[in-house]
Amino acid sequence: MDEAGIKDKMSRELALEMKAMKLDLEAALIGTPNAKVAGDDSTAREMASFTTYLTTNTSRGATGADPTGDGTDTPTEGTERDYTEVLLETVLSSCFTQGADPKLMFVSATNKGIVDDFTGGGTHYVDKDNKELINSVDVYVGGLGHTLKVVPARQLYAEDVLLVDPEYVQLAEMRPIHSFDLPKDGDYYAKAIIQECTLQVSNEAAHAIIADTNG
Is the pTM of this model over 0.70? Predict the structure, then answer.
């Protein structure tokens, strides 16, 4: 049958599955903290998540503790607290001391709302021509000159706020994501999708984390 609006169903299914894989990959990178697993004949390998490397520019709640920093263990969670501009500026001061210049601020939906209310209650912008009321902070400029693009991230571990310099972190791919045909069997055909990669943190001091928020 020809399905309305679908020119090639196999291509559509491949696109959907690749999108799902990318979401899983994003969750593995910045979602629930996960230590690396070497793997063996019966255990799959696992890469360490981003936060398992951060030990320099960190802010944690009471009883919270940094990980070792080599991906072998996860941070110790501390007492949750509200995300505030004071916490952000304190971490940015540490970044300044270390020579770090993060460009991106990853936040949960809750913490995005808090950022929108920074500087004492938030700033509203009115576009009279288009009849729009805008209440969003998309770029935050810190007191020491750091300019951060605010990025809401669904897959982010909600209690964390991550400040990232893309120059010093990347996805190291052994086999880029690709698809190939599987042997035909009977009255159907199938494809497989493969990707092999890991997280490469070139300099953990280039980044920062504000953990244990009520995000």
Answer: yes
